[in-house]
Amino acid sequence: MHEKALNIHNLKVQYSDGLESLRGISLDVEAHAVNVFFGPAGGGKSTILRTINRLIDLDDLKQLEGEVIFHGKNILDKDTDVTELRRKIGIVFSRPIPLPLTIYQNVSFGLEVAGEKDTQVIHANVEKALQQAGLWEEVGDRLNAPANELSGGQQQRLCLARVMALEPEIVMLDEPTSALDPVSTAKIEQFMLNGREKYTFILVPHNVSQAARMADTAAFFLQGELVEYAEGKNIFVNPKDKRTQDYIEGRFG
Prior knowledge:
Distance between the termini: 34 Å
Number of domains: 1
Order of helices and strands: EEEHEEHEHHHHEHEHEEHH
Low-confidence stretches: none
CATH architecture: 3-Layer(aba) Sandwich
């Protein structure tokens, strides 16, 4: 039996403008796997990531119901330590937003905010995180340069390194390669495939081909509904629902 990193039960989200984003979503997130959430825009994929990370607290909501169980606790409970949660469940967005600091400070920032004072520990984590993100060889000799001098692909991998420096359990990536060149895309994909032994990944992919390439498990979302959830090798070859098949074959989306 596969270990589960998260258990999502009957998750419902409705925004104050009446837009229903998630309609009773229930699924398990497999530990030490690349879990792909795919589907057309407006399906609820980003909302579910924001809910897991509690960024949804910043949104104007009419309804938030259900459970997201992490280590036996519902992370939607009001007494959840959100700062600690975000250290354990990191998120990388589609558009890189480096801090207006040096390359090094961008990666060390989260550790320092979390209270780490040992400079040797910080330096070791920064180097390890940059290596994981496939960036160390490119920037290791200029860590004190401004982060905004990096290319777009490098900035995206820097944002990934910033998350990895905190040594999270779950890493969520929301279309992390949508604006990247093929080389940077390949480095981020390789990081996920190599990192499954230690980390759990939730990926909202850039397109269907990336979804099929990366998915250990895949969940197809359409207009706030979970249409189909299966092993990646099955859902892209033999989808059970016609809507899934139509989307995979490019008939809509």
